[in-house]
Specification:
With 485 residues, this protein is an alpha/beta fold. Helix content is 44%, strand content 13%. The protein contains 20 helices and 15 strands. An eight-stranded mixed β-sheet has the order 7-6-5-4-1-2-15-14, with helices on both faces. Strands 10-9-8-11-12 form a five-stranded parallel β-sheet, with helices on both faces. Helix 1 packs across helix 16. It starts with a strand and ends in a 13-residue tail after the last strand.
């Protein structure tokens, strides 16, 4: 059958498109893929043999109880891990090394079925310099999502960009990144018990009070900037009445607050659908606050500025975001931002590159290097060397619920799971559109996925979408991986 790569998606808005790009490149190398949300991919992995797993686990640290069970299952099934974290580069300066160690489970590196650990840049890789025995496993590739911001991929967004321009005209994009103040329901609160546990799982060995103090101080900095960021949008709307402003909440933010707060202004809109990339490309300029969107805008050639209200405040300096704050100095107050915007009007919104450099944090920001190519090359070399032959047993997957009848405890657990999924579906159907927008479970249409697949050069006969899962097949083979066929 050949090799099958399992790709788990945490946030479809952010991660589905680049995973399709990787899958299309793998398909040309005679390697299939299965792309779906974490719980579904975990279920498929349970009934697979000798597959390849690309991504992180289902929790942010890969160390939760369910993650460890997942790891054990992978070991038993011969699954080979190519670990890649979708949030792998930008963290608070004072907490950078600890944050990297928190999301990269170094205790797994030496496991024989962990083949590669991919990093966005040398800065994260250097945190694990003491792992000299496993240097061949630790590879710097970059962020595959950022490949799509390059000019050679601008055609991907042409239709969406046209739609956005027709809808909003000439607009300034304002990107929020304040999930700590405005969290979606699926994610743990920034000061919650789970947030504390994540730090412990990630290896934070400070005493409880020290950890809690850091958490509350970091939250305080976000709260301070949030309290300046929100009025900023209102001031812009008032001072520039002939320009539209589009607010883009972070995927982990609830957009209801913004819709309610800015309903007074005819020139302020909230846009959360799909990936942020086309929204950036359609904008005349981007305003962000220590957000990855600033780097995406820079790669896309769109003028951008970092609004940092806490800039220069000593008590908050060590809570600035490493990587983003290196890209440009930014501005700390509204008057400076207003002056920047007026100058942009005068020079016709011409783009100039920032003075800072972030290559150490994300190696594929400049130059011709593409993370997706490096990842595919690494997987391809392993598949060829080991002659990988993967399989997914569809029969077991379909009838596992029936077999549970032989074990009463598992039968009850199975019935409970089925009922839970049923009520989730019913609840989802009753949700309003804005509720769906406030969920990380946003889904692209099947038509868009199929169109994008072909745009990436994928064979239209080598893809199938079933039950919300994307199955892609080797282009050079008639064998399929969909549902184990």
């Amino acid at each position: 059958m050949g090799a099958i790569v399992l790709q788990s998606v945490d946030s479809p808005r952010r991660d589905l498109e680049w995973r399709l790009l990787v899958a299309a490149k793998l398909s040309k190398e005679n390697i299939g893929s299965v792309i779906g949300k974490g719980s579904v991919v975990a279920r498929i992995n349970k009934y697979s043999k000798n597959s390849i797993y690309l991504g992180r686990f289902n929790s942010n640290t890969a160390r939760s109880v369910s993650d460890r069970k997942y790891l054990k299952q992978m070991s038993e099934n011969g699954t080979q891990i190519f670990f890649l974290h979708d949030e792998g580069a930008l963290y608070l300066k004072s907490d950078y090394d600890s944050a990297v160690r928190r999301i990269y489970p170094e205790e797994y590196f030496s496991l024989p079925f962990v083949q590669k650990v991919f990093f966005w840049g040398d800065r994260q890789r250097s945190v694990f310099s003491d792992f000299s025995d496993h240097n061949c496993k630790l590879e710097v590739v970059g962020a595959p999502r950022l490949d799509l911001c390059r000019s050679e991929y601008s055609w991907i967004d042409e239709k969406t960009v046209g739609t956005l321009k027709s809808k909003y005209g000439d607009y300034i994009l304002v990107c929020s990144r304040f999930a700590a103040m405005n969290t979606v329901k699926e994610d743990p609160g920034p000061l919650s018990k789970r947030a504390y546990q994540i730090r412990r799982e990630g290896g934070d060995k400070r005493d409880k009070n020290a950890v809690l103090k850091f958490m509350f101080e970091a939250w305080s900095k976000s709260a301070y900037e949030y309290s300046h960021f929100v009025p900023l949008v209102a001031y812009l709307a008032i001072d520039f009445p002939d320009i539209n402003f589009v607010i883009r909440p972070h995927p982990a933010e609830n957009d209801d607050f913004y819709k309610e707060s800015f309903c007074h202004f005819d020139n302020v809109f909230v846009e959360k659908g799909g990936d942020v990339r086309p929204v950036i490309r359609a904008a005349k300029a981007v305003i962000h606050s220590e957000c990855t969107t600033g780097i995406e805008a820079e790669i896309s050639g769109v003028p951008n500025i970092n609004f940092r209200p806490s800039l220069g405040m000593l008590e908050y300096e060590h809570f600035s975001v490493a990587g983003v704050s290196e890209a440009d100095d930014g501005v700390s107050d509204y008057l400076a931002l207003k002056d920047w915007l007026r100058k942009l009007f005068l020079n016709g919104f011409s783009h100039y590159r920032g003075s800072g450099h972030v290559d150490d944090f994300i190696c594929n920001v400049s130059g011709s290097r593409q993370a997706s190519d490096l990842i595919v090359s690494s997987i391809k070399n392993y598949v060829l060397k080991e002659a990988v032959d993967s399989s997914i047993c569809n029969l077991k997957y379909k009838f596992s619920f029936v077999r549970q009848a032989l074990r009463p405890k598992e039968l009850l657990r199975g019935i409970g799971g089925k009922l839970n999924r049923f009520f989730q579906v019913v609840s989802m159907r009753k949700r309003k559109d804005n509720d769906l927008e406030n969920s990380k479970a946003y889904c692209f249409s099947e038509g868009y996925i199929l169109s994008l697949w072909e745009s990436f050069g994928g064979d239209p006969q080598s893809i199938n979408i079933s039950g919300g899962v994307v199955y892609t097949y080797p282009e050079k083979s008639s064998a399929t991986v969909a549902e184990g066929k």
